[in-house]
Amino acid sequence: MDDVTVARALHVLSIVLWIGGVGFVTTVLLPGVRRLKAPHERIALFDAVERRFAWQARIWTVLAGLTGLYMLARLDLWDRFRYAAYWWMHAMIAVWLLFTVVLFVAEPLFLHRWLLEWLHWVWLILGLVTVAGAVAGTHGLLLFE
User: How sure is the predictor about 128, in pLDDT bands with cuts at 50, 70 and 90?
Assistant: First the structure.
């Protein structure tokens, strides 16, 4: 069994579940919560659903980080960070760092009290652009050669 193939499969799986979850929260949960009349109902519903998703998101982001780092080291891809053509690698690290800080630091300390729908849209768009760029780039579409 090829270790890089297993790492890549786990990496993609973790990204699908992580960014897919962000997509659900952004496009389904938050708009639904916003339609509730009473503020205490909004917070209670969001907290109940978000609490269940947060631990899953933490697992997927950790797995994404570990498998990504493993592939970087195993394939010795560090030099790609010197070239703009591989912009999606920079984006993957930046998006991963942003989400990781939010999930492990900001959200537990203070962010869980805020229903910041616009911030979820920014996270979702960044995540989707990064995924699209990574798929296109790994299949030869290098925009900044």
Answer: very high
